[in-house]
Amino acid sequence: MTHSTHPSIDPATLAQQIRAWGSDLGFSAVGFTGIDLSSAEQGLLDWLAAGFHGDMDYMARHGLKRARPAELVPGTVSVISVRMDYWSEPGLAEARAVQADEARAAISRYALGRDYHKLIRARLQKLAERIGVAVGDYGYRVFTDSAPVLEVELATRAGLGWRGKHTLLLTREAGSLFFLGEIYVDLALPESVRPERSEAKSKGQTGHCGSCSACIPACPTQAIVAPYQLDARRCISYLTIEHAGAIPEDLRPLIGNRVYGCDDCQLACPWNRFAQPTQEADFAVRNGLDRATLVELFAWTEDEFKTRLAGSAIYRIGHERWLRNLAVGLGNAPSTPTVIAALQARAEDASELVREHVAWALARHSSADQSSRAS
After folding, report:
1. Cα 365 to Cα 335: distance, rounded to the nearest angstrom
2. What is the pLDDT of residue 217?
3. Are the CB atoms for 277 and 109 separated by under 8 Å?
4. Which of 47, 127, 228, 268 is buried most deeply by CB count within 10 Å?
5. What is the DSSP string of 108-173?
6. Does the annotation place 169 within a ligand binding site?
7. Total structural domains within the chain
């Protein structure tokens, strides 16, 4: 990507137009920043050195490319950062109720509808093409959680919010219940936030979290090891989505009924009182996943999994990991005949990974049954 210059286009006017086009495409905010992320490099290196990325080898493999946009996409001069709300009704109380009902499957709210990767990437592509109509040929590349990009850092610098103590982006207007996306461009665009203000935030200032740290004790596995520091190896989202192998036994009881992702730190955050209901129909709940039981989902065959979850972010983990996660949930569920029968039905599953987690779950119920008899 070579640097494009368009002297007839006023950068400030273009930025204003991009915001308007982004709004038309369903983005709730659009901001701009430069590419000097040098102040974020040491934090990234320290995080990797601590091993907090777990099995996500690609995080270390790409190294500092994450903090150097022009190395990832040569010619990049500016970054357009966007966010899109995903929260769907009902509200926070219903999400908490699902987690409290041990027989139900708690699925992160962002995954209840269509896979955001495809939708947001397509919208970003349309925005990029609309810019091209205005400026002519230029270099760009779109991203949404799909490449070595420091999304929260870029969004912070673009004025879209601040990094919360749970490490997610927070805003006054919408909490943290939204997706992020980026377009790397070879156009010089005016930055939304003065670099010195962005740098201060990136160095750990609290933004508008103040003295609140509700997200930290809310994490079931204590994955938020300090304000602004997440050990992914303990994070339920990592364990149920990114991690391919057996879930560590000491963490399984802490996972409860969370079978895909985890919203606990966000549900505890006071700013999410202001979460904005999505205007995007594709993010509406599908397949009754907001009220499904663990037993019901555990009974799905691989064909049913593929058919029902086609177009869902959940589809990406595959049926085997889906069953692994559900087996853990069932191991933490009340010891009812229905739960025991569901687990026994997969005790001889073709997958060794599933069999091991089912055996663990059945052993937990056996132990609980013996304890209740003894008492």
Report:
1. 6
2. 98
3. no
4. 127
5. -GGGSSS-HHHHHHHHHHHHHHHHHHHH-S--EEEESSSSS--HHHHHHHTTS-EE-TTSSEEBTT
6. yes
7. 2
Strands 229-230, 106-107: pairing is unpaired
The reply, when asked if residue 269 is annotated as ligand binding, is: yes
Whether 97 maps to a domain, the answer reads no
pLDDT tens profile 286-341: 989 999 999 999 999 999 999 999 999 999 999 999 999 999 999 999 999 999 99
Residue type, 125: Q
pLDDT at 44: 78
Choice among 145, 186, 349, 369 that is catalytic: 145
Distance CA 328, CA 361 (A): 6
The reply, when asked if residue 286 is annotated as ligand binding, is no
CATH number for the domain harbouring residue 336: 1.25.10
Give, for 80, the enclosing helix (H) or strand (E).
strand 78-85
**290 tagged catalytic:** no
Taking residues 71-90, what's their average pLDDT?
A: 91
- What's the predicted TM-score (pTM) here? 0.90
Please indicate whether residue 200 or residue 187 has the higher confidence score (pLDDT). Answer: 187
